[in-house]
Amino acid sequence: MVTIRDVAKKSGVSIATVSRVLNANGYVHEDTRKKVMAAVDELKYSPNEVARSLYKKKSKLVGLLLPDITNPFFPQLARGVEDEMQKGGYRILFGNSDENAEKELDYLNTFIQNNVVGIISATNNKAKDNYKNLSIPVVFLDRTSTDYPSVYADGKKGGRMAAEEIVKRGSKRITILKGPAHIQPAQDRFQGALEVLSQSNIDFHVMSTTSFAFEDAEKWAKELFATYPDTDGVLASNDIVATAVLHEALRLGKSIPEELQIIGFDDIPQSSLLFPSLSTIRQPAYEMGKEAAQLLMKITNQEKIQQHQVQLPVTFIDRNTTRKVDENG
Amino acid sequence: MVTIRDVAKKSGVSIATVSRVLNANGYVHEDTRKKVMAAVDELKYSPNEVARSLYKKKSKLVGLLLPDITNPFFPQLARGVEDEMQKGGYRILFGNSDENAEKELDYLNTFIQNNVVGIISATNNKAKDNYKNLSIPVVFLDRTSTDYPSVYADGKKGGRMAAEEIVKRGSKRITILKGPAHIQPAQDRFQGALEVLSQSNIDFHVMSTTSFAFEDAEKWAKELFATYPDTDGVLASNDIVATAVLHEALRLGKSIPEELQIIGFDDIPQSSLLFPSLSTIRQPAYEMGKEAAQLLMKITNQEKIQQHQVQLPVTFIDRNTTRKVDENG
DNA sequence: CTTAAATGTGTAAACGGTTACATATTAGTT
DNA sequence: AACTAATATGTAACCGTTTACACATTTAAG
User: Fold this and answer.
1) Is pTM, for the whole model, over 0.85?
2) What is the domain extent for residue B295?
């Protein structure tokens, strides 16, 4: 490993001077700057971030904690975070929590131990205490919070939109699939949908689901049609669940969207590739990731923040699991 | 921040002793061990990994470089790597290369600058030089290599299997979708399929595709049916492309699998949720990730390695885009 | 021409750990 | 009892940077 000392020796100056040219601070004569840069090039020196981090008590690392990268909603989020952080010269220390408080705490600790400048967390468990005594900024992503900076989509509005759209398109016996109770965004969607349906004169059922895993989703789907066979509209808690419902409905020979309309939530990439393609409420996952990254960087740079809570808009994506609405009707 | 010095002061011993109890090496009296541990608990001390890393010239970090976490094949890989690394006490520094040599090199550099103990790379560009002068172990994942340790699935076998299965099930005019030329695993699949079809008396076409992106996939699909409308069997370069083909075929009103059979590659999670569900060649992505992590840790621990190249088996997943074969026929 | 300010560079002390080495005490052997 | 080995602990050097401080030289100002 080539160190700053090697560069200093080769260019005949002190390590302090080398450091100064590398960081472009303090006075340094143009000639020596050139000499040093030449040595740097020749030796292919690049500074040891660990040493730098130790002295500065700040690395160029941020911690990113997700529930599970395997859930198709999160890769987009992660990419948004990474792309934006990369622009700012930051790298990502990455972990999956599985919504497990212990694992979460473990990751949080190692983030701290590695001098990350900040943490972006998309976990949803109740163990808020995990974040209480952190000495560094935290931004919550895909999660609402009043105490901490956070970036999230307007879930309630999304739930309302979904309900309105499916009603407008003529579903009369709707089943709402309510997502896991501890996942706040899922509850917001649910509340939004509930609000709209409660004020209408549409019959509806609520079915609780307790996870977003692929394997479980098919189970709920089967259960749904076994329990409420006359359902003609499903408001799913997310696109995974919606996909499973769609799958099961097709297996049962239901024609979609004629007999059954389905609206998902998230707009994960594969939703558009289903057949029929899935109508859904889109969360701008990539943008959410970017926003979270930008917010964290602003906080880190001590910039004035107008908005500690960033709510991003949600849009209805009108694909083929919903009927076309007659705009003139 | 509470340091080892604080612990030393509180427990009335030297920092060396504290270090010894924390690392459980060297002699230390049981009584002082207890005193120190008490101080550690009371102060909630946890060692600064950065300082440790600086002295030892080795962190507890590994670099993971993927082409794009947004491609649904990779989250599983990543999860396999992470879960296994976590068991060994390692954390993941994560980056997406977009198969861009410059970005790749940039990440590689920062990995090194952060004292990672090793790197797992799933990138496929030709810039092998990027890895030439690395002073730390590298394991390639989802990529074959003779020079470096690597973990990959038996792509050629997979290609052969796909071809055999589709022929056995009666397709007569097959189109092979050949994946991007610079992606070795895609070429292996293609070679395998080519081998089998060449030796059969089945008509077939080869169509080149140059990316695995969702957006592009639908384009290839349209082009496929425009160019070869009588195709009755498609061997897709991966499940994303297969999904797009399936989508387009359904849109054109083809009945599947009666008129058209499709076999994908990878078995990404959503393939089973399509309708009809996608027949495919399964790569054990999660296991591949785990194997790569294990291999890297073995190398790091200087264990004897029997196998520097780990080839994992591939399986045919017989779903509903292929016909049932009459086993007695 | 003198003096102050600006410029340029080096020395050494941090940062928070680990460990080689020295030293002291205790235990075990003849 | 004398000597050696094992146990226990502390001091200081080191890991590769950054930066406060000191000092020397140049430039600008009066």
Assistant:
1) yes
2) 61-153+285-313
